[in-house]
């Protein structure tokens, strides 16, 4: 029987899908995610974090229902955050779905498909990313109570994966050809507190860096409060840990941070950023911001703009605030800012960041960098350096030179490291020439 998993939302969902496939691969033929080939079973792993993500998930379910009616899909199963969040309502709204599962019901899905879960395969995965990089989910759930976020309600309390299990998983991934690990969780800097009664992210980074074959490790989803500075020591001194930090700050104004329940102040945040750049010279910082949160007047928004202008984040994304069911914000704050004004603030912030990103990218012109080749198409290599993370950042585009690369099959370079020189830049991507293969 043929089975397909469609994964929506964040990379944490992708890891869950890959663990499910590892349990099922002996019993089912796995059809690639982007294939329209008819299948006996399709699993849709949904996102339910914010409005746009919920709409995308619902649309995907409806599209699969239409394919089921056309005889292209036998059964549809839905799992993940959307079905966890609305598990009482969804079955009645979309009865064409054969079964609904929550965000943590991975074993139940496997059992429902007639396979006995095999604990010996708990560290195994069927990769759905390119074979040279993978996401490493080090914990599930979250103990934070940010006022705008429903994740603790959906995913439950923080639960760290033991270091030895993660090292085993990294070892298995390296054996498959993985060279880059992106460390993820709802809050990576909280890692270890439940298991070891200490923040153990730095220790974990050291252990997985000792795995043969792993060459790059980068960190995503770091929470600023009580940030463990020994992680910066790893970043500064361990050549495998990329000088790259994804740290969603959300805001800088004290009033808004307090309303968000972020457990930091603006001054704490500024001090942390200074510490990061002092301890890890050249570190690339990626962050996200929320505009239009209750309590954000024009004064607080202007403070945010000034902070971004002064700090000059190499990467920054943003989104507008929306009330989410069962969050403190939805139950205790009145959302009085119009959507038009929220969008105006978002546009102003991203216009500023576009200028900053262009300046940063232009500063790299003339530099020589080691990059990994993600793909090759229509005469162009799509690459990344240690300063770009897959899916969320820009790319380094390298034109295939048949003279300089005579005798080299360009497709053979996918997943390999090459040396390039940056020769051009815009606000998103860089252009480079091959220097050495």
Comma- or semicolon-separated keywords:
alpha/beta; 6-stranded parallel beta sheet; 5-stranded parallel beta sheet; 15 helices; 23% strand
Describe the structure concisely for a colleague.
This protein has helices at 11-24, 51-69, 81-85, 90-93, 106-112, 151-155, 163-175, 193-196, 201-209, 230-237, 254-260, 266-279, 298-311, 328-332, 339-363, and strands at residues 2-7, 29-30, 39-46, 73-80, 99-100, 133-137, 139-140, 159-160, 180-184, 216-219, 241-246, 284-291, 315-320, 368-377, 380-384, 396-399, 417-425, 430-436. It is α/β, with parallel strands linked by helices.
Spatial order of strands in the largest sheet: 6-9-10-11-12-13
Helix content: 25-40%
Q: What is the mean pLDDT?
A: 95
Q: Indicate the low-confidence ranges by residue numbers.
A: none
Task: Write structural notes for this entry.
The protein has 437 residues and is of the alpha/beta class. It is built from 15 helices and 18 strands. The chain has helices at residues 11-24, 51-69, 81-85, 90-93, 106-112, 151-155, 163-175, 193-196, 201-209, 230-237, 254-260, 266-279, 298-311, 328-332, 339-363, and strands at 2-7, 29-30, 39-46, 73-80, 99-100, 133-137, 139-140, 159-160, 180-184, 216-219, 241-246, 284-291, 315-320, 368-377, 380-384, 396-399, 417-425, 430-436. It has a six-stranded parallel sheet. Helix 2 (51-69) links the parallel strand 3 (39-46) and strand 4 (73-80). Helix 1 (11-24) runs parallel beside helix 5 and helix 13 (298-311) runs parallel beside helix 15. The longest helix has 25 residues, at 339-363. 40% of the residues are buried.
